[in-house]
Amino acid sequence: MNQITRTYEQDCLSLLETRRRRDRPRTNPSVQTEKSPANVTTTVRGIPCLYGMSEWLQTLGHPEADISRLNIIHVTGTKGKGSTCEFTRSILHAHGSRTGFPSKIGLYTSPHIQCIRERIQINNNPVTENLFSKYFFEVWDTLMNTNIQNADTTQRPPRYLQFLALLAFHTFIRENVDAAIIEVHHGGEFDATNVIQNPVVTGITSLGLDHLDQLGPTVESIAWHKSGIFKPGAPAFSLPQEDSPSRVLHARAAEKNTSLTIVPLNPNLPTESSVLGIPVQQLNCSLALELARTSLKAKAPDHVIESADISTALRDISLIGRFEIIDDPDGQSQWFVDGAHNTLSLEKTAEWFSDITKSPAEQTNRILIFSHFSKDRDGLALLECLAESLSERDALPDHVIFTTYIERADKSQTEKMDKDILPTTLPDLSVLSLFAEKWKATVPRGTNSVSTKETIQEAIETARSIGAQQDGKAQVLITGCFLLVGGALNILRRS
Question: What CA–CA distances, in Å, run from 262 to 40, 199, 205, 485?
Fold first, then answer.
């Protein structure tokens, strides 16, 4: 194929799709290392995602020193790692705009919500289609050449997430960023991003039970995997955790010869910032501030983050699909959009929705739009968690709508799906009926109607119709997965 004819949409995206994997490595509960703490599983089945990353980077011409020069802030956690990375980037960008350093900041994050280029950003913006394509084919043409496959280490080319991580490193090196914020995909110890050997600082957000097949079966195991990003001499920071996982984190910090600092809520954060109106985001911002300060201290010791930098960062930050509120132009519907997809996150989403909608000045109709299809999580259990959390806060919706990840009737079922696991079958629509049954069993009273819709567009139109038929404004919570949120945002922003 002539490189001149290759395009972002027809070639980059379609080629990348071929690298999706059908399954992730899973933990083997029966195997534990001799020195591993009780209740901690430290192995994975299959080939860990980290395997081959160093060799692939070498093949691309990037030795370890190139990665170290990126001045990396490495972040993991169960909940809030994406927001923490965004806060960190925004703080550093505000400081750099005022002082000149850092002038160029890279951010690698996942999942993307509307556009895959969201995963690789420079200075608050996704890389352009032209830049993405340029570096994509530099990586693709090098690593997909079977002649360079090394029989000892890289018997196969990189998979989807591995390729994207390699592309991010390659992009940031070529673009000469002053600092790079790298969000872990899953876990830490065996994650593809853990090829980083000399981060400037590492951070762990709130921990909970998620990705149990890969990281479980206990929260202690999850803490062990997450703390795999700790590196000798690189300060480590963590939000407060429960006692048991906290002990694992401290033990791992000692094992890896680094310091671990627990970051409490910073009482000096600007109180007027709307983005900090959610308590959990105050914690995430507190951690981000410490990560940014430590990064600057290591690379520019004379630089100090001032209160003006923080205020600017919070004013300019855009947390798409995270505790986001969208008002319809006609004022009839208000949309509360959050990509929560585990129990820890859904509890916070319920708290946020309840706090904002509990004392309306006018009659309102609460509506929930929910979807979750995943090999890694029990969607019914997540729905039950959400229902119970809303019920406890007296914020049960009057109407519930279950849908799929299909954006519109004329779109492919998987076109908008952002999964590193290749869907072997299209979502089974019968699951929607199971969602409806689970909701009715969990909260038998308090909801007027429960319906199912095959597309996100139908679900949104139904919510609007309900609001129009009744007095007052419709307040609609859309949650359960970033895949649902991405499709919903596409529709809501067009309208």
Answer: 21, 18, 10, 32
Q: Is 183 annotated as a binding residue?
A: yes
- The answer to whether 96 and 313 have CB atoms below 8 angstroms apart is no
List CB contacts of 325: < 8 A, sequence separation 6 or more.
334, 335, 336, 337, 356
Q: Answer yes or no: is 338 a known binding residue.
A: yes
Edge-to-edge strands, sheet with 324-327: 324-327, 333-338, 473-479, 364-370, 399-402, 449-452
pLDDT, position 29 = 41
Please, are residues 289 and 310 in contact by the beta-carbon 8 Å criterion? yes
Q: How high does pLDDT run on average in the chain?
A: 86
Q: What does the buried/exposed string (b/e) look like for 98-116 if buried means 16 or more CB atoms within 10 Å of the residue's CB?
A: ebebbebbbbbbbbbbbeb
pLDDT score, position 271 = 80
Give the C-alpha separation, 242 to 222, whole Å: 12
420 is in an annotated binding site: no
> Coil, strand or helix: which one is 492?
helix
Residue 26 has pLDDT above 60, yes or no: no
Peptide bond preceding 199: is omega within 30 degrees of 0, i.e. cis? Answer: no
Please give the structure tokens belonging to residue 214: 């890969």
Region 380-399: what's the mean pLDDT?
93
> Domains along the chain?
8-14+43-316 (3.40.1190.10), 324-493 (3.90.190.20)
Which run of H or of E encompasses 106? strand 105-108
Q: How far apart are CA 488 and CA 337, in angstroms?
A: 8
Question: What's the angle, vertex CA 275, arms to CA 271 and CA 277, rounded to 5?
Answer: 55
Report in angstroms the alpha-carbon separations of 427 from 22, 371, 478. Answer: 15, 11, 19
Distances (CA, A) of 410 to 14, 407, 482, 492: 19, 9, 21, 17
- Consult the annotation and say whether 322 binds a ligand: yes
Nearest residue to 438 (alpha-carbon basis) of 368, 351, 350: 368
